Each structure stands twice: as C-alpha cells, then as structure tokens.
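Write out the 3D structure for:
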Amino acid sequence: MALSLGEGGGGSRLRRQLESGGFQSDGDRDLQEHRQRIQALSEETAQSLKRNVYQNYRQFIETAREISYLESEMYQLSHILTEQKGIMEAVTQALLLQADRDDPALGARRAAAADPFLPLSAKDAAANEEGRQRTLTTLLEKVEGCRDLLPESPGKYLVYNGDLVEYDADHMAQIQRVHAFLMNDCLLVATALPNRRGAYRYDALYPLDGLAVVNVKDNPPMKDMFKLLMFPESRIFQAENAKIKKEWLEVLEETKRNRVLSEKRRLEQEALPRPAPMPPESTNPFDEDEDEEEEDEPSAEEEVVDLSLEWIQELPEDLDVCIAQRDFEGAVDLLDKLNEYLADKPVSQPVKELRAKVDERVRQLTDVLVFELSPDRSLRGGPRATRRAVSQLIRLGQSTKACELFLKNRAAAVQTAIRQLRIEGATLLYIHKLCHVFFTSLLETAREFETDFAGNNGCYSAFVVWARSSMRMFVDAFSKQVFDSKESLSTAAECVKVAKEHCKQLSEIGLDLTFIIHALLVKDIKGALQSYKDIIIEATKHRNSEEMWRKMNLMTPEALGKLREEMRSCGVGNFDQYTGDNCWVNLSYTVVAFTKQTMAFLEEALKLYFPELHMVLLESLVEIILVAVQHVDYSLRCEQDPEKKAFIRQNASFLYETVLPVVEKRFEEGVGKPAKQLQDLRNASRLMRVNPESTTSVV
C-alpha cells in the first residue's frame, strides 16, 4: 500500500518536472541560447541602421541648407557687385561732368562720343563702338544659338542682365530658370544649361518696340514678379527679391524711354530740310519769271511732317498694350486719330516708316479680331456677342471679312443648336422645337446683321446666300426626321405647316424665304404623295377583289350617327338619302371606305400644296379615282343578277353624282382654280355608262 502511494507521488513529480523543462538536454539549451543571441544581434543591427539613416538624413538636410545659404550668399555677392558697379559708374559720371565744366572742349568731344547721332571723328567713333561691341560679344558668347539671330548693328550694346525664374501664366507653376540680357533695342531670354555652369541656350528675342512691362502685385507665396506682354503671348518672371525686381522694372522702362527718344531724334534728323542743289544758270530770259512763280508757291515736298509729338512716338507701344489688354476700341481710336492727323500731310520717308510700324500692329489687331469671330470660340451669347469684333473690323475697313466671319460664326452656332436638340417623343413635337430654334436664330441673326452692316449695302447679298445655305441645313434635318422615317401623310402635312408658319415670321424684317423652303421640300413631298397614293390604290384594289356588293349594316344607331358625321366632314351633305331603316346603309362598304380615304388624302395633300405640286397632286387624285370608277363600271357590265345590278347602279350614282363633284369642288377651293382633268374624268365616266350591256373592261 505504501509502495503504491510512493509510486503514485513520484509519478506526479516526474510529470511536473517534464512539463516545467527540468529535464532538458544540453543540445536544447544551446539552441535556445544561440537563438537569444541572434535576436539580440538583430535588434542591435536594426537600431544601428536606424541611427545611421537618421544621421545621413540630417547630414543631407544640413547639406541642402548649406547649399541654399551658399546660393543666397552668391546672389547677395552678385547684387553687391552690381551696386558697386553702379556707384563706380555714378562717380565716374560725376567726375566726367566736373571735367566737362572745367574743360568745355573736352566735354564736347565726350558728348559726341556718347551720342551716336552727333558727328564723331572716325577714330573716336571706332574706339567707342569697339568697346561696346566687345562687351556684348563677350557676354553673348555664353549663349548658344543667338549669334545668327542678333544682327551686328553698330548701335547695339548691353544695358542690364540677370537671373530670373519663369512661372506659368495660368497655373502659376514654376517652369524654368532663365537669364535675361537687356540691350538698348531688344530683350534676349536664355535658359540655363543643366551641366554647364554659366552657359545658356537661346530661348526668345523680343524687340523693345513691341514689349510692354506690367508689375504683378505680390500675393504670397507668389511675390517679386513682373509680366512681359508680347503679342500674342505673355510671360511671368520672378526676381530674386523686391530690390532686383524694382531694378528690372526701372531699367526696362528707362531703356524703352531712351529707345523712343533715340528714334525721335533720328526722325528729326531725317526730317530736317536738305539744301536743294543749285540749278544751272540758264540764258533763257523767261526762266526768271517761272522761278519767281515757283518761289511764290512753296512745294508740298518742302513741308515737314511733325512726328515728334509724344502720342505719335508712343503710338506703337500703346497699340501693343491695347491689343494685349483686349481694348480693341482704344486701339482703333488711336488708328483713327493717326489717320486723321496724317490725312493732309505729305508722304515722307519718316511717315512711311511710321506707317510700316502701325500696319504691323493693324495686322496683329485684325488677327485677334478674326480669332474672336472664329467658330472655334465659344458660340454662347447669341449674335450680339460678335458685335464688338465686327464693329471694329468694319472701322478698320474690313467690312467684307467681318461679314464673312460673322456669317460663318452664326452658321456654326445654328448648326450646333440643331445638333443639340434631342430627338425624343412624337415627331411633331421635335419639329416644333427644331423650327423654334432655327427660325429664332435666323431672325436674331438678320436683326443683328442689319444693325452691324447698316451702311454696307453690298453685304446684304452675302446674307441672302447665307440664309439659303442655312435653310438647306434646316431642311436636311427636317426631311431626315419627317420623310426618311416614313411618317404618315397627316403627320408630314402638320410638320410642313408648322415650318411654313415659322418661315412667315421672317417677313417682319422684310425677308421672305418661303420659296426657298418650297424648292427644297418639293422632292420629298412629291415622294410622300406618290407613296401614299400607292398605298390607297393597293388598299382599294384589295377591297375590290373581295367585293360582294352588299348593303352595310352598322348594327347600332351610334355607329350610323358616327358614319353620318364622318361623311359630313368629308363634304358629303346628302348622305341621309343613302341610309335605310334599322341602321342599314344603301351603299357598299368598299365605296364608303374609298370615299373616306380619298377625301382624307385630298385634305392632307392640300395642306402640303404649293404651285410646284399642282400636277403631282392632280395626277394622284385621277389615278386613285380611276381605280374605283373602273371597278364599278366593270362590275355593272359583268353582273347578271338584276337586284345586285340595281345596287351597283346606286353605288355608281353615289360616286359620279356625289363623290366626284365634292372632290372637284374641294380641290378648286384649296388650289384656287378648277381642275379640268377631274371634269373630264367625270364626263368620261358618264360615257362609260351609255352601253351598260357591254362586258369590255376599261382598265
């Protein structure tokens, strides 16, 4: 018993030791130690990598910061050097002025060297020009691709240069770094080459005559910016700081001003009267009298045109600004003012040069106005949106071009409006929308045309041609929906009626296009009439083939009353004499159906009627009536039963004496003149009944 208890206690202890790992081999323990050491090394390595990455990242940030500081210091150093250069130039200028006051002769020589328009000695002029050209050549050697673009003119020299940053004018996103070279007559923009320090590639060259400078208001973080306007583009640049931006603005304005003054002095020099060559002495005694008369009347060539006025000198630049700011009226006003000033002036060489500059701006202005009227622009706003550009083109003497562009713009607008119409629902509803859109646009265009081109009678023929082409476009859309889709004749008649009513609205402005819509629709309407005529003939022949010549029994008084009303609407007023007792009608179903179908065809055809369709409608009616008349006459000849023969005679009497006169009368009312063919058909039908015993078919 004790042994078993001991064994039981020892077994439980052994089990607990095994569970707690008390009995483990040396191999397991070594493996666990190696695993712990590896985990420790892994964590240590990860921490070391993190520290190294952090240190390198900090060093990278510090290096970038140092580079930024170095760049800023370089810009500051460049700015300081520029200031020092300016101070030295100012001091030199002051010393030169002092020396000029001390030695007037030396000052006169120096002034002659500084002004290219004053007479120079050959040696001084060559030395001055050589120094300026050498400076410009040295700086421009750093710019690739500009040597062939810059003409080697003796008066060209460098005024100012510096680094700028270009931004996108729409999204204000940085585009590139550039270096600008300002010369006395133009501005050169070059982009920095990425792998060559101090080297640039040519980007653009702008003459100062067509350049406008606009200050851009600071809007953080976008600041220290200015805009250059060069028709038809504009560019935005950012200076390093506000001071450099101010220098750029000032030096650009000063250089442009000096350019204008230099041009003004050149024009004055050219406008000075030159001494006329002395004529050879003449021994003719009568020449003295002629010379005296010529002296009394000064020639027009001796008159000098004063082009030194400030507004004339600034006219090309003002025109550029007006074009850039879309002030078309202001630009045309300036041109009118110049034309008025030069109207009675002789055409000298300075005037020709001024005209050449102004004509270039006129071409630019014309191109902008043409673009304003192009169909690529937005077509919203209706015809009035084009009035501004059209009126200015007319003032520029471009009436024909203005008329052409205005009509093209309106044609595109009308076509776009028609295309945007959604084809949904009934055809008649779509036609109402189509007519409203088209004829309203046509009416508005006509009124605007009359307003814009009131004094240009020669343009009205172009409008008529345009209206015809627009009407053709409308008819194409109309026919595609009405006739190509095989609508019923009643629907087609209603649609044509709507189109005619809208077309009559144009008579308010004295424009009648009804004959055009008739000419364009005649082919489709003829096709519709002939198609519907064939349908009626086929239906009539089918009913004739099943004809039993029996009276109609309508079963109810309501049905009989409805038939009376239908026949009364068809124009048959004496239908009661063909009705019997107990809802019986003493006519064949075939004859009644034929009467209703023929009168319905006639009513719808009269809605479509115009003179070009007269013979088509008349021939269609004759063909339809002949089918019924010939069938009745043939049945009358062939029928042997006396009772049925009497019934056929009664139906024939209804056709000849009631239906045919009603058709003839209604046709004459709708058309306005009698139809001889219908009268001949009725008379011929009477002749066919002269010999009722004959069994010969007339078909």
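The CA atoms of residues 570 and 600 lie 8 Å apart.
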